[in-house]
Amino acid sequence: MITKRDVEHIGWLARIKLTEEEKSKFTEQFNSILDYFERLDEVDPDVPPAHNISGLVNVFRADVVRGSMSRDDALDNAPKKEGEFFKGPRVV
Fold first, then answer.
1. Does the pLDDT value for residue 19 go beyond 80?
2. What gap in Å lies between CA 2 and CA 9, rounded to an integer?
3. Which pTM was predicted?
């Protein structure tokens, strides 16, 4: 259980000033969060995970090795080239 004193300490660690109203509000919120974690502890961990309940699967195409464009054909489409390389604009 989080007390108002704990919230004051957290505020001190975070170097923030908390008003009395904020201290009460955060004390209530921290305790609410801890109550929720206690509820999670009640969950049966032996239940199998439900990664995908819809049954949908990804469809991938087969990875087939095939030829690609030759270097000369690619360089023929380049606006600028230098030897066997594409020439790009100067960056620096």
1. yes
2. 11
3. 0.48
* Residue 86 main-chain phi, psi, to 5 deg: -75, 145
Task: Give the DSSP letter string of the chain.
Answer: ---HHHHHHHHHHTT----HHHHHHHHHHHHHHHHHHHHHHTS-TTSPP-S-SS----------------HHHHHHT-SSEETTEE------
Residue 64 above 80 pLDDT? yes
Contacts of 7 (CB under 8 A, 6+ apart): 18, 23, 26, 27, 30
Whether the pLDDT of residue 31 is over 90: the answer is yes
